[in-house]
Write a structure and sequence with these properties.
Helix content is about 35%, strand content about 20%. It is α/β, with parallel strands linked by helices. Helix 5 packs antiparallel against helix 6.
Length: about 300
């Protein structure tokens, strides 16, 4: 008998089972377990209740909640950006961006612009956006605060809309109405901005103290590295987005984060430069934020407070 066979028999003997005996023992144990009484099945009435409850559950909806607000009475800039971004979102399989109106006067002005645009629009995605916005700006369906938002189904994104300028903590309407970051923050708080929402200041230069341009040293390399805010954008607190975040966080319990953009922002889809897989920069269709006059993907030109803490 070789040494390996002798050791196997020795181990089997110590366990009290040979290979075949061990297999029989396992089978016997499994039979005894399967023979044990099973827990009683639910009564038919309970099963029916369970089925009825399940049938009433709505499927989880594939969506991202996106809203847009403006502090201005003039709705020209709000309308143009809402339609443009909504049309591109619909083209990408997303929902339109829903306006939340500061008052009925603003809602009525927005609804008038929607109806005017519907009479001449030909583009299918803009038409789809306008038809949805017609419903959302009607007196029966319009939102004038955030009380109806389902806060348990993802963090809402809330855009603030107005014209901006670098190093400026105000935003402006087409008719040059002025609204400070403090005023916009107070408005959002009064409207019941959800605590888990991220605010995106959708205004030109809302996230930069300085004007970025193509001649700045290494700016395209910094774009590719996504480090422009550290080299070119200046002091966060001297931006509209930074001032808006400070105002929001001055309210007890609020921890909303605000994002801004480091250049002029577009109102719809156009060819933009985008960092793609592998780190190269290629042309793609998207909403733009410009470096000088050079359009780049808005999402990759976004700036947030690096010192932000929950």
């Amino acid at each position: 008998m070789d040494e390996k066979t002798r050791k196997r028999q020795l181990v089997a003997g110590q366990q009290g089972k040979s290979g075949g005996g061990l297999y029989s023992h396992v089978k016997q144990h499994l039979r005894s377990v399967s023979a044990q009484p099973k827990p009683p099945a639910p009564e038919p009435s309970i099963l029916k209740q369970m089925r009825d409850a399940k049938s009433k559950l709505k499927p989880v909806e594939k969506f991202q909640q996106r809203y847009i607000v403006s502090p201005h009475n003039d709705v020209g800039n709000l309308f143009a950006n809402t339609v443009g971004m909504s049309a591109f979102g619909i083209e990408q399989g997303m929902k339109a961006i829903r306006p939340v109106f500061k008052d009925q006067k603003q809602r009525e002005a927005f609804a008038t612009q929607v109806n005017t645009a519907l009479s001449t629009e030909k583009d299918q995605h803009r038409l789809a956006a306008l038809n949805q916005l017609k419903t959302w700006s009607s007196v029966d369906s319009a939102m004038t605060d955030f009380s109806s938002i389902n806060k348990k189904r993802g963090a809402p994104i809330v855009y603030t809309q107005g014209h901006g300028e670098y190093g400026d903590t105000n935003i402006y309407s087409n008719t040059n109405e002025v609204a400070s970051a403090n005023k916009v923050g107070q408005m959002l708080h009064t409207m019941g901005l959800p605590e888990n929402s991220e605010v995106r200041a959708n205004s030109c230069f809302s996230g930069t103290q300085h004007k970025l341009n193509e001649t700045m040293p290494d700016i395209y390399q910094h774009f590719k590295q996504q480090t422009m805010e550290f080299h070119h954008a200046g002091n966060w607190s001297q931006t509209f987005a930074g001032a808006l975040q400070t105002k929001l966080r001055s309210f007890f319990g609020r921890k909303n984060r605000v994002a801004g953009y480091m250049g002029p922002t577009g109102q719809g889809s156009e060819p933009v430069k985008k960092i793609v897989m592998g780190g190269s920069v290629q042309k793609r269709q998207g909403v733009a934020t410009d470096i000088g006059h050079d359009p780049h993907l808005r999402a990759q030109m976004r700036r947030r407070d690096p010192s932000y803490k929950e």
